[in-house]
Write a structure and sequence with these properties.
single chain, alpha/beta, 34 helices, 24 strands, binds 2-deoxy-2-fluoro-1-O-phosphono-alpha-D-glucopyranose
Length: 835
Amino acid sequence: VEASIPQPLRETWRKLAAAEFTGKEQFQKEVVRHVETTLARSIYNCDDNAAYSGTALAIRDNLVIKWNKTQQHQTLQDQKRVYYLSLEFLMGRTLDNAMLNTGLKDTAREGVSELGFRIEDIIDQEHDAALGNGGLGRLAACFLDSLATLNYPAWGYGLRYRYGIFKQEIINGFQAEVPDYWLDFNPWEFPRHDVAIDIMFYGTVNPGPRDDRGNIKKVWEGGEIVQAIAYDVPIPGYGTACTNNLRLWSSKPSGGEFDFGKFNSGDYEGSIRDQQRAETISAVLYPNDNIDAGKELRLKQQYFWVAASLHDIVRRFKKSHRPWKEFPDQVAIQLNDTHPTLAIVELQRIFIDIENMPWDEAWSIVTRTFGYTNHTVLPEALEKWSVPLVQNLLPRHLQIIYDINLFFLQSVERKFPKDRDLLRRVSVVEEGTPQVLRMAYLAIIGSHKVNGVAELHSDLIKATIFKDFVDIFGTDKFTNVTNGITPRRWLHQANPKLSDLIASKVGGYDFLKDLTKLNVLEKFVGDKTFKKEWMEIKLAAKVKLAKYIKDTTQIAVNPHSLFDIQVKRIHEYKRQQMNIFGVIYRYLRLKEMTPEERKKQVPRTSIFGGKAAPGYWMAKTIIRLITAVGEVVNQDEEINGLLKVIFIEDYNVSKAEIIVPASDISEHISTAGTEASGTSNMKFVLNGGLIIGTCDGANIEITREIGEENIFLLGNLAEHVEDLRHQHRFGKDVVMDPKLREVCDAIEAGRFGPEQTYSGLIASLTIGFDYYLVSDDFSSYVATQDLVDEAYKDQDGWATKSITSVARMGFFSADRAINEYADEIWNVEPTKFPA
Ligand code: GFP
Ligand code: GFP
């Protein structure tokens, strides 16, 4: 069906084309119109929420006009496009970011104020889009912002979960999970009921007719069909008309699936159940961070999403009528972790089964199309799918995986004859009961580039988990792209006062598009007034967080105390346990002191936040210890505010925007070699907070950029971790560090509630071989915290460190990272926009 308007009528359309509003009055008119018509409200019942909706719809209209123009322009330019496949996009809120990126925030602030509302209250009405767990999903969101800002023709593809990451409630000190039903009103998405794709599961593979080359075709048929419906989310760039697309797929029963047999035989509920099964696919985000759960529904999600996305990408490519061999010149697909690895298999299937291409020709196109980003070396996080599971769900794909593996192993055999053990080690199929598929290996074999996310991490994957593949493919296939963050959201939006102050010194807001321009700030480190303003802004951010803490926990914290913050997913490798042990140690010291001695101490507020995976018992125990320590310390009159311990419930993106500007120090203290990069470290430093951290992930590059004198490093190096673990396991007479012993004794004495609550946590340090090396790093950690106190006493010196660090953070912009991907992996150019 030709859906376009016929040529002769287009002039009529063009004359009537929707135009963006400009200026305050037009904006107000749009808001009122949406409140009164789209929302059917009036002056008699327009609350903050209705005002939010009206404002969002007005801003959205402008976005959509830009979006349409961008898409048409990119289609006409017929350039290579980037497709970023990610199972998670942790977008947070959209309105504030959309207003800032399109330059409409001041207009909107004045506009709503004259209508009786405060823009801050309106912004605060929005529900976070929390379609992600942590770093990986937030990275994808930062990358979308940079891709649009830099005018790259790029689409994100993901799933439209009905439930995002669960909401965390703290009940009696323990985490409880509550479903996050976020889609009541989401103005930022556009359902595309016309973009509906049938996706098949299960079924059988049968011999079909012969193809042109005389081979018997394999036909996958008889399976269950589910429909993928596209939902489009416009992604505005900062200071450009470029508005890219994030396409999220939602599942629904396909027309043919409703079982009329069951219906007619009276089993109405049975036929409804089948429908619900289809809807389940995109129902919920798996809440696991860095752990592979191996559930069938998860595999279904993965295939559903990659099959729909590839169908769409291939369809779009076909519009240009180019020969297939040009596919990799038009299409770059980035796999965000191994979750979308089936895309490699699906594209090969489309080429050989549907487009009748010979295997080698198809495979050469496939491997030139894909790039794969690894985000972790943790063995428990590497995805492996059971062969029987894949056999049942995707029988044709399993055959293709076997063929990919066979041809790969044959090539390895040619290069390294008779090395049977090498073949066993690199095979996609891992022997065992059941056999499993190593998805990371499949991703490497099917991609032309593999990258880690920080220098140390990229070196580690080459030296450890992927070492054999470096020998096989050569070192050029493996590269590094150090992560970055968008300075728009994480500085300009979260910390507008700091952004304004910086702009006043570095010559305007251009630094938001070229973050290296921050280096001009170094000229002003000696400037007394500037320093004073700088520190006042930090204090104001702390006051704001203190207010938030008071409002939500009823606990008063002193904004003049040293704010020490660790917010991220709760995980043993991230070592929140070391932090809280350190807090306990500090508490025990304070208790021993005389009142005179106490007066000399730097008051500290230890702030924690983060979710534990629902099934991760140890992480939940750590949360309980943090809340229990808070219950004891916060009410101890002897301590008198010298130490407070806060757990912020339900840490998410919008809360991070309040928390990040408010740190004096933040903690990034993972066991060396375990945190691939970390990105909150970058956010905190960019906001003038210093960090205490291990030599891990991007901390190493942050140190290199800002200088060792501006960071508090601690602990053992990655190169020693293996030996230390060996010591714990096999060494004789390993005695626990006496400081840590003292902490454990206090916990076991029941000072923070029943000691049985923590017995597993204590056991992990002793009989559990202390896999994360808390005991090895503890005394270094405590000593480094003392250095932090000392440094904080010199407020002028602290301000110098803070300003110098920010001045040197230019490297950590996501724009830099995206330009590296574009040049080294995707080979794609920005679109030139008409002025
Ligand atoms: C995209 C957009 C459409 C738009 C065309 C051409 O379509 O709304 O009309 O580009 O501008 F979604 P596909 O690239 O998905 O075909
Ligand atoms: C993972 C890694 C982090 C890394 C991010 C983004 O984060 O070190 O910074 O990916 O590359 F562990 P999570 O999704 O596990 O938080």
